[in-house]
Amino acid sequence: MLSTMQDVPLTVTRILEHGMTVHGTSRVTTWTGEGEPLRRSFKEIGERAARLAGALRDDLGVIGDQRVATLMWNDSDHVEAYFAVPAMGAVLHTLNLRLAVEQLVWIVNHAADRVIIVGGSLLPLLVPLLPHLPTVEHVVVAGPGDRSLLDGVTPAVHEYEELLAGRPATYDWPELDERDAAALCYTSGTTGDPKGVVFSHRSIYLHSMQVNMAQSMGLTDQDTSLVVVPQFHVNAWGLPHAAFMTGVNLLMPSRFLQPAPLAEMIESERPTHAAAVPTIWQGLLTELTARPRDTTSLTQVTIGGSACPPALMEAFDRLGMRVCHAWGMTETSPLGTVARPPAHAIGTDEEWSYRLTQGRFPTGVEARLTGPDGERLPSDGRSEGEVEVRGPWIAASYYGGADGENFRPADRFSDDGWLKTGDVGSISADGFLTLTDRAKDVIKSGGEWISSLALENALMAHPAVAEAAVIAVPDDKWGERPLATVVWKDGESTDFAHLHEFMAGEIAKWQLPERWTVVAGLPRTSVGKFDKKALRKQYADGELDVSKLGASPLD
Amino acid sequence: MLSTMQDVPLTVTRILEHGMTVHGTSRVTTWTGEGEPLRRSFKEIGERAARLAGALRDDLGVIGDQRVATLMWNDSDHVEAYFAVPAMGAVLHTLNLRLAVEQLVWIVNHAADRVIIVGGSLLPLLVPLLPHLPTVEHVVVAGPGDRSLLDGVTPAVHEYEELLAGRPATYDWPELDERDAAALCYTSGTTGDPKGVVFSHRSIYLHSMQVNMAQSMGLTDQDTSLVVVPQFHVNAWGLPHAAFMTGVNLLMPSRFLQPAPLAEMIESERPTHAAAVPTIWQGLLTELTARPRDTTSLTQVTIGGSACPPALMEAFDRLGMRVCHAWGMTETSPLGTVARPPAHAIGTDEEWSYRLTQGRFPTGVEARLTGPDGERLPSDGRSEGEVEVRGPWIAASYYGGADGENFRPADRFSDDGWLKTGDVGSISADGFLTLTDRAKDVIKSGGEWISSLALENALMAHPAVAEAAVIAVPDDKWGERPLATVVWKDGESTDFAHLHEFMAGEIAKWQLPERWTVVAGLPRTSVGKFDKKALRKQYADGELDVSKLGASPLD
């Protein structure tokens, strides 16, 4: 029996056409730092996207699935590129402007980008890289910036507005297959080369529907979303696409991500929703405490990237901004969970504990836990394992391995095709995820897992400890055991036996570290996290002065 | 460049598995008319669906895409069939128990149903049909009803609960293709044979996501939906599937669709949402006016099937139940539009006019207008044409034509594959649909359209007119012209020239009818609408006494 349904592909083109017609009066407002913000309706953006596609095709000769990169802040030009490039059949490659220069060069070359659209203010970052980017034939400059920096560069240089001015406001968008590549984003992993995730039209479409479900972000044309999360960071969590589906107005901060301008744009543009990482939101709180503003419009804040400290959540609750955790990664498009408490918990003591989880899996994201020996663990809210996920907007592989084919490293994908997230935690029976560690940081001791984070939190609760990192080190008997690395507070210290005893109230005895070391400071990654990879190397190279408190508690 | 995304099919199985785990404590509550309602959690329903699938496969031998029909009211057993049958790979065929007996027989034979699951209270309807249903090998009886009616019937008879008791609470659901057939529903068209629409897993999944979008019904696990719209009526507008996606509790009225029990279940079960057709909702208003109840929980009512009279909407507004129009048909799964006013209209005089439209097209439903001569008309809020739609949950054909293949009648599908809805109206620039007539009732006069509804409304505003129907009749010069058919109120009458003049204030002169007839009563369809097909036949057969008021106004 054959279905009688139409076989209409799920494409970015449909999202664009819907947004620019049905929601043609919704707007993208871009903060300019001085004077009036730049306001463009979805209809204008759609027309400008058509002009951009025409220019890319006819002036720059972009064909097929060639890559068009963006090196841009969040602004309406960037939204135009979000739609024009995939809808014309090419692939949008958003470049993370915070990456190390070497990584940017590696990524552009790996993706073989033919065109880079660059925000004028980012020319000082781009221009020195150009000699190392042989595939880049065209640079298109949008917005204010010093063009003279481009004098003498090899690629052809174009003005964004001039390109658009020369082309019609309509484009004969091709019919695409929904499984065609639409956008490319590289993970900024700390191990090995960056890895490319290629989103399909289908995955973007389905992810956007999910973002718009009431159980998820649930925004409508009555909302204005302040998109602090960068557009180069996993499609700004899908908000531009989701917005064109339901007419959500977008407020784009451009490069003005400092607390003062953020507070100013909230007061004057009155967004109802914001999406940000905790660090930036913490800064905003400090600003609002020092100089209160009218932020009453903003009632819903989606926080992702890492967990929001409870104190920060409480502080924002008091301001009327309800923080809602979301969890995900480049490989999950990124929305993997959203922490909306279940109905029965609302208004009870349980509500808070649900809000502190990473969130609940939506339809479309199946999740399971795998233990240290690859065994399946139950979703019972207690068992801890590596989180594996499956779904139509979850990655199955990475782009372009050594042989040119997409590749599936065994540490990231299970034999049956699920993504290994690298996150360790538990899943409750009602689908809430609580993370306890990263898989690469967890200590695998005698077939059981010890959370490095739990040990670090217990250590840092001691008044003499400024910082602490716990890493796994090899152990003949147990496979791995924890090594506690401690930084004393200025003028403070104590002995390891005391710390060991101090932690014993919190931590199971067999999990307590017997190896200890003191360092002056902990190495950090580019995003400010403890660099445990560097620490593991220091240990392996014998650079740490390790004490041992007798045998393992298990011996 | 190949996408790196997982290729996970969108299936009813995924919806079931998500609902019974993540939302396992949400409930389906079935009204029983006396005593406590029957309450089952989504987890129980999932387990019972597995038992049902096991029984259908192993006891009844259902394989492949064989059809399993349901002749049932809205209840939790019916929800189990909704999931079990498609998830096992078979096709759920919901039988409309309000159809004429001949149509039911035709439909069951056309679908070649192998099994019918029947609500016990509906045995008096089913049993007399069985001798005419040669493909039906098994009858499964669920819920209370007189089993002795089945004595001596040819198909094997089974008790629903006994089948379930004999099977395990898990089932090894097959991996299905998302384009596989999942459910079958016949349109009860007034012209020709009923036509079967076969929903795919994909279309059901996408439609359910759309239902759950905040811009649409936007329900969450905090909601309880009173599903008055029958499950045999286009999948109860997708609510059971949508509910399992986000944990919406379902309140099922079973056969208790009378105003008093509806009022009672609203008061005692406190639903937050209801979905119904205007007729039933009108009855509820009368009941609530006579005997007020606490209906404060119920704030959102989706009304479809036909437009809700403004007076009814206002009356429900006063009760705190906000009525929201939705429009669609079997061929659109059915959600084609939802009348949520745009942000700019909320709180203004415009809000009401938006609420009176049929609603706004969501992402996933593209719409266009076609004029009398097949020309494309603009979506400008003024041009009127037949509404054509396209999208992944819109029909492309009907099931099983004469040659066994799915077929595409030219009056229902355009050459380029869009569905011709048979509805005539306008579409505003911001995607709101306003219907003015059915395409088969509109009068095509000299290349222009005249709305039969507009003429009828103008006529019925006259104090002497009880009812009026206007049909198209052949005209040598103009192709078609309107014939006005009038029923006088008891003891009242006037002459046609006066009525003609009376209408002239409302209706353009060239649209006014010159042909007039008086009848004692108008023929009606099974659902109570004027039967214009019968009227056109009476005219063709010369059975009407037609007067002509001079020449056409256009001559």
Automatic annotation (TrEMBL), chains A, B:
Residues 364-386 are annotated as: Disordered. Residues 373-386 have a biased composition (Basic and acidic residues). Keywords: Ligase. Gene3D superfamilies: 3.30.300.30, N-terminal domain of ligase-like. Belongs to the ATP-dependent AMP-binding enzyme family. Residues 455-529 form the AMP-binding enzyme C-terminal domain. It comes from the Bacteria. This is Long-chain fatty acid--CoA ligase. CDD domains: ttLC_FACS_AlkK_like. One of its GO terms (molecular function) is ligase activity, forming carbon-sulfur bonds. Signal peptide: none annotated. InterPro entries: AMP-bd_C, AMP-bd_C_sf, AMP-binding_CS, AMP-dep_synth/lig_dom, ANL_N_sf, ATP-dep_AMP-bd_enzyme. Residues 36-399 form the AMP-dependent synthetase/ligase domain. PANTHER family: LONG-CHAIN-FATTY-ACID--COA LIGASE, MEDIUM-CHAIN-FATTY-ACID--COA LIGASE. SUPFAM superfamilies: Acetyl-CoA synthetase-like. Pfam families: AMP-binding, AMP-binding_C.
